[in-house]
From TrEMBL:
<feature type="compositionally biased region" description="Basic and acidic residues">
    <location>
        <begin position="77"/>
        <end position="86"/>
    </location>
</feature>
<keyword id="KW-0690">Ribosome biogenesis</keyword>
<keyword id="KW-0539">Nucleus</keyword>
<comment type="similarity">
    <text>Belongs to the RRP36 family.</text>
</comment>
<keyword id="KW-0698">rRNA processing</keyword>
<dbReference type="Pfam" id="PF06102">
    <property type="entry name" value="RRP36"/>
</dbReference>
<feature type="compositionally biased region" description="Basic residues">
    <location>
        <begin position="259"/>
        <end position="272"/>
    </location>
</feature>
<feature type="compositionally biased region" description="Acidic residues">
    <location>
        <begin position="28"/>
        <end position="47"/>
    </location>
</feature>
<feature type="region of interest" description="Disordered">
    <location>
        <begin position="73"/>
        <end position="118"/>
    </location>
</feature>
<keyword id="KW-0687">Ribonucleoprotein</keyword>
<comment type="subunit">
    <text>Associates with 90S and pre-40S pre-ribosomal particles.</text>
</comment>
<feature type="region of interest" description="Disordered">
    <location>
        <begin position="250"/>
        <end position="281"/>
    </location>
</feature>
<comment type="function">
    <text>Component of the 90S pre-ribosome involved in the maturation of rRNAs. Required for early cleavages of the pre-RNAs in the 40S ribosomal subunit maturation pathway.</text>
</comment>
<keyword id="KW-0175">Coiled coil</keyword>
<dbReference type="GO" id="GO:0030686">
    <property type="term" value="C:90S preribosome"/>
</dbReference>
<feature type="region of interest" description="Disordered">
    <location>
        <begin position="1"/>
        <end position="54"/>
    </location>
</feature>
<dbReference type="InterPro" id="IPR009292">
    <property type="entry name" value="RRP36"/>
</dbReference>
Length: 281
């Protein structure tokens, strides 16, 4: 059926049939193409913007970009410092609040003990005082050390050592077992060195006592006090030793041994000659 004619001035000459629907193939643009166009439009715009931004950045001088980068980094550091300061203030306030809460607790409140700490199975019923060991050598109750008194009290050890040396010498003369003889020799050597050390200590003490007594007498006469150096004290003891051995063969033997030891020391200090490299044929 044909449609009624339109009024004058309209498209009255166009005849449109009502029952003929417009097919999808006759549409100008399909739905899929329309959707694709909608999606491609922002992508195209973004590509254009990116290209324009790159061209703009390439035209900017390097020093300007460097200054902008420094400014951006400074702003980032400033924001980070502000954030860290805020976090620090919050933690400080929290710690102050916890400390205030701990202070406000009751004095007679039960003590808080960590559950990780192991508890002893045995309960202390009666408080037993702790035992303290005491070493009399390092205790002030034992008094100060008096070497002269100790020497006088243990002087019998020196006499006993003399007798032991005499007995060992007699045994060494009669001994036929080489192993036993070696043992006696080592024991004799140790005892003789101890005896010599004891004699040297006695000589040093005697010489220094005499020197101090002489110095006191001079101070009483009006002279200024003089304190001898340790090196001078050693020289004084050595001089007394030479005087005691004067006129005997001991002095010559002692000087020979001393010269030999000194020569050995000097020989060790001398630089050694390098061995010539062996020539390989």
């Amino acid at each position: 059926m044909s449609k009624n004619a339109l009024k004058k001035g309209s498209l009255a000459h166009v005849n449109v049939e009502e029952d003929d629907p417009v097919s999808s193939s006759d549409e100008l643009v399909s739905e899929e193409e329309f959707n694709g166009m909608e999606e491609s439009e922002p992508e195209a715009i973004s590509d254009v913007d990116e290209k324009s931004a790159k061209t703009q950045i390439s035209e900017i001088p390097f020093d300007t970009l460097l200054a902008a980068q420094k400014k951006l980094m400074a702003e980032q550091n400033k924001t980070e410092k502000k954030e860290s300061a805020v976090i620090r203030k919050k933690s400080q306030k929290r710690d102050e609040h916890e400390a205030h809460e701990r202070a406000e607790r009751k004095k007679h409140a039960p003590m808080e003990v960590s559950s990780k700490k192991p508890v002893t199975r045995f309960r202390e019923v009666v408080n037993v005082p702790k035992k303290f060991t005491r070493d009399p050598r390092f205790d002030s109750l034992s008094g100060s050390l008096n070497k002269e008194k100790v020497k006088n009290n243990y002087s019998f050890v020196f006499d006993y050592r003399k007798k032991e040396i005499e007995l060992l010498r007699e045994e060494l003369k009669k001994c036929k077992d080489p192993e036993r003889a070696e043992t006696i020799k080592t024991t004799l050597k140790s005892l003789l060195s101890k005896m010599e050390r004891h004699i040297e200590e006695e000589r040093t003490g005697r010489v220094l006592r005499e020197q101090r007594a002489n110095e006191r007498e001079q101070v009483k006469e009006g002279k200024k006090p003089f304190y001898m150096k340790k090196s001078d004290q050693k020289k004084l003891v050595q001089l007394d030793k030479y005087k005691s051995m004067e006129g005997t063969k001991k002095l010559d033997r002692y000087l020979e041994n001393k010269m030999r030891r000194r020569a050995q020391k000097e020989k060790k200090r001398l630089p050694r000659a390098r061995s010539a490299p062996s020539s390989s044929s």
